[in-house]
Amino acid sequence: MIHAFIKKGSFQDSVSLMIISRKLSEAPEVEEISVMMGTPANKSLLDVTGFWHDIFNEATPNDICVSIKAESDDPAIIETISSALEEALADIANGQKSGNKLTTVRSWRTAKQKSPNANMLLISIAGEYAAELADTGLEDGCNVMLFSDNVSIADEKALKEKAAANGLIVMGPDCGTANIAGAPLAFANIAPKGSIGIVGASGTGIQEITSQIVLQRQGVSHAIGLGGRDLSEQIGGISAITAINMLAADPQTRVIAFVSKPPAPAVREKIIAEMKRHNKR
């Protein structure tokens, strides 16, 4: 049986929600729990994975959808899991109540003032707000990693064109992994530094190549994610070209590896031509 409820107006990134889903699924009263934001894509995923409940029709992208699979039809399960969710969210808000706490700010401008030399902005907020923040980051001379999804094709193209015109890059939207100068970002493998640069429009592909490189006792200079739509006909590989050029200019990078799902044919030819243009293996 599916029990479900919505927590209104409480945006969390997908990494936090995956951890919460796993933690809540340990409750003895349930079989499995799925916790997702109420975006259209996530609603479709809840449907195809058997977690759908009609209450989710009321959810917005800023609401948390909680779907509970359980044998019991006792409605008290919802109250139990709701309380556990509140505790998990409180732990996140308190930085897990242990370890070193990062500086907390409430705006990009304040963050930039506190770290004026920063040149990378990682965005994980609701997609409807992500493009505007990414544009602000580009205006401030920062490269952007958009972990957020639900950014329109038009906004993605405009952001990537603006970045390329200013010698910057936009990774994403829906870019789930990167490794920049040894710093793993989002879902990323920790890898030794080395001479192999990776460009990828496939997060799992980047992680697999990184793992194989490490198994061969080699290292990674940078792993640059693109987002799943960069190699589409509409976007035209804008960030892919930028990433290749960045790695080609990087003295630490001797080899460039490129991985993606099947790209648009014309974009594929463009990428191959760009790879051949540089003196890298």
UniProtKB/TrEMBL annotation:
Q: Which Gene3D superfamilies match?
A: NAD(P)-binding Rossmann-like Domain (3.40.50.720), Succinyl-CoA synthetase domains (3.40.50.261)
Name a single GO cellular component.
succinate-CoA ligase complex (ADP-forming)
Which positions fall inside the CoA-binding domain? 194-275
User: Which domain of life does the UniProt lineage start with?
Assistant: Bacteria
Q: Which InterPro entries match?
A: CoA-bd (IPR003781), Succinyl-CoA_synth-like (IPR016102)
Q: What are the protein's GO molecular function terms?
A: succinate-CoA ligase (ADP-forming) activity; succinate-CoA ligase (GDP-forming) activity
Q: Which GO terms describe its biological process?
A: tricarboxylic acid cycle
Q: Which NCBIfam families match?
A: PRK06091.1
Protein's recorded name: Membrane protein FdrA
